Structures are given as C-alpha cells and as structure tokens.
Amino acid sequence: MRMPMNYLRGFLQKKIAHYAVSGLSEASEKYSSSNLSSPIKANLHFSHSRSGVVSFDRVEAVIEISEWVDVPIKKFTMENSTNSSSNPIEEPSGNHVIMEKKLTKRTFRVPLKIEDKTLGVRISLSNESIYEAKSRLVALDKKEADRRRIVELKNNLENYIYATRENLDTSEEFQKISPEEDRQTFSQQLDEIQDWL
Q1: How far apart (Å, rounded) are the C-alpha atoms in residues 188 and 197?
Q2: Which residues make beta-bridge pairs with 157?
Q3: Residue 152 belongs to what H/E stretch?
Q4: Which of 14, 73, 91, 112 gives 23 a disulfide partner, CB atoms 3.0 to 4.6 angstroms apart?
Q5: Which of 37-51, 125-139, 149-163 has the highest mean predicted lDDT (pLDDT)?
Q6: What's the pTM?
Q7: Mind giving me the DSSP string for 4-45?
C-alpha cells in the first residue's frame, strides 16, 4: 500500500513524503480462514506537531472475527426471577452447568510495517535555524496570548457598559443620588466608549 502526503501548500514538490506499508496481505492470509465479520481494515495513525509538521507514526490491520462461544446460562431462581410464574425451573442436581452458544465478536490489531520511501535530498536544519524557528514560535505564542488578553479586556469593558447602562436606566438608588443631567452625560460617554469598541 502506498500513501502520498501531498497536502502542504507552498511546497515546490507535490509529493513530500512517500511510505510503503507491508504486512496487510500476510495478516489477511492468516485470518482469512476465520469467520470475518467485516472486511479487514488498515488504521493509519498520524501526529501533528505544534509547528505544523505531520508524522506518520504507525499502522495496524484491524480484524474482526465472529465466533460462537459457550457461556453458562444464568441459573433461574425465584429471587432473580422477573416473571412471577408458579412453575419455577428446577436447577440440575450436582455440579452440572448448563451452557449455551452465543455469537461474539473479537477484534485483533496486527501492527504493520512502515517503510519511508521519500525521494530526494533531505536537508537537516542547523542549530541556528532550529533556534530561529523556536524563537519565532515563542514570539507567535506571545502575540496570541496578547491578542487573547485584549479580547478578554474588551469583553469585560463591554459587560461593564451594559451593566452600568442598565443601572442608570432602572436602579432607583442611582436615580436618588444623581441628577438626570449627570446620568445623561455618563450615558453619552458610555456610548462613545462602545463606539470605540
């Protein structure tokens, strides 16, 4: 099975990585004589780093098999009966256990092999490039934290404006301690601040 990873934009090559996964046909042959409840699947597991690098970590074959197994039947007694019939079933005497067949599904996960088949020259980054990239990430994290803080402060100010405006309009205490003219001036200032927001 071949899997190209060509979804990064701005990269000169369309195909940036190429992997060969092997072992699926062997797993299929091994379990083909079993009673498969669904076709054999391959689960691919990727990880994504903070800097946007995607890595192909592992792959496994998922095999679901249906099989009949013997399970003991729950013993019927008057205490655990939900049906209050007058004819309880007698338990067998001795150490005899009554079994019944039940269809169950079992799932097997078989690890498959990954081989990196990426073509082209791989350029390793110098320590200076790595330091520069880490510094950029730190600067971006700081910028994002500052942006979130500004949004939070603006939200707090907006909540203050709404609460104060409501108090100016409906609170009897505000109306008792402040003249109408002062409340109108303050309300206009609140409007100016909200327009600025």
Answers
A1: 14
A2: none
A3: helix 127-170
A4: 112
A5: 149-163
A6: 0.41
A7: E----TT-SSS---EEEEE-HHHHHHHHTTS-BSS--EEEEE
pLDDT over 90 for what percent of the chain? 24
- Are 88 and 73 contacting, i.e. CB atoms less than 8 angstroms apart? no
Tell me the CB-side half-sphere exposure of residue 72, using CA atoms within 13 A: 6
Mean pLDDT over the full length of the chain = 79
Q: How far is CA 81 from the centre of its chain?
A: 43
Strands 18-22 and 2-4: antiparallel
Going from the C-alpha of 128 to that of each of 106, 115, 131, 132, 134, the distances in angstroms are 52, 30, 5, 6, 10
Which two three-digit tokens encode residue 17?
């990585």
Provide the terminal-to-terminal Cα distance of the chain, rounded to the nearest Å: 55
Q: How many CA atoms lie within 13 A of 98 on its CB side?
A: 9
Residue 104, token pair as written in the block = 């169950």
Burial of 45 (0-12, 13-18, 19+ CB in 10 A): exposed
* φ, ψ (nearest 5 deg) of residue 156: -65, -45
Angle 137-142-143 from CA coordinates, rounded to 5°:
95
